[in-house]
Amino acid sequence: MEPEELDQILARSQAEHEVSPEVLERISGAIVPGLRPVRPMASPSLLVAGLLALGLGVGIAGAAVLGMHGLAKLSGAQAVAIFAMVGLVTGLAASQSAAEMVPGSKRTVNPYVLVLGGSLALLSVFAVLFRGYSTDGLVEQGFRCLRAGLLHALPTGAAAWLILRRGFAVDPTAAGMVAGTLAGMAGLTMLELHCANLQAIHVMIWHVGVVAVSAAAGAALTRGLTFRARSAAQPS
Length: 236
What we know:
The chain is mostly helical. The protein is 77% helix and 0% strand. The protein starts with a helix and ends with a helix. The model has no long low-confidence stretch (mean pLDDT 87).
C-alpha cells in the first residue's frame, strides 16, 4: 500500500466519524455553565504547620481547662523527655497526614511504621521514666483516662478532616490511620499534662492506648467509607 492510499483511508475515516458542530455545542452548553474555579490547596508546609498546631493545641487547651496536675508532678527531665517525644511523633503524624492527601508527595515515614514505631517509642520512654505496676484500680482509673483522651481525639480528627478534605488519598486506609494517630496524640498530650497518675502500667496501657485506638478507628472509618463509595458506584 502506497503512502498516498493510506492518507486517503485515514482522511475518509476521520470524515465519517466527525462530530457535528451542533452536537459539540450542546455538550459544551451542558458542561461549561457548571464549571467553577477551584481554590488550590494550601502548600504542604502550611498544611503540616496547621495540623501540628491542631494536634498540640487541642491537647494543651484541654489540659488547661481540666487542670495541669500531671505536669506539676513531673520532674524537669521527665517533662523534657516526654514532650520531646510527644512533639516528634505528633510532627511526624502531621507531616504524613498531609503527604497522604497530596498524591505524589514524598513520605516522611511509612504510615504503618509511624503508628507502630511511635507507639513503641512512647512506651519505651514511659517505661524508663516511670515506676509502678500495681493493678489496683487499673481498669477504673484507666478507662476514665481513655475516655477523656478519646473525647479530645474526636474533635481533633474532625478538624483534621476539614483541613485535608480537599486532598485525595491514594491509600485511604493509611491516610485514615495517620490522621487517627494525629488525633490520638492530641488526647495523649492532654493526658500527660493533666493526669496525675504516674504509674508506669497506667500510662503505658491507657495513655498510649488512646493513640492506638484512634489510629485503628481512623483506618477503619476511611476503609469503610471507601468501600461504601465503591459499592455505590458499581452498577447493580
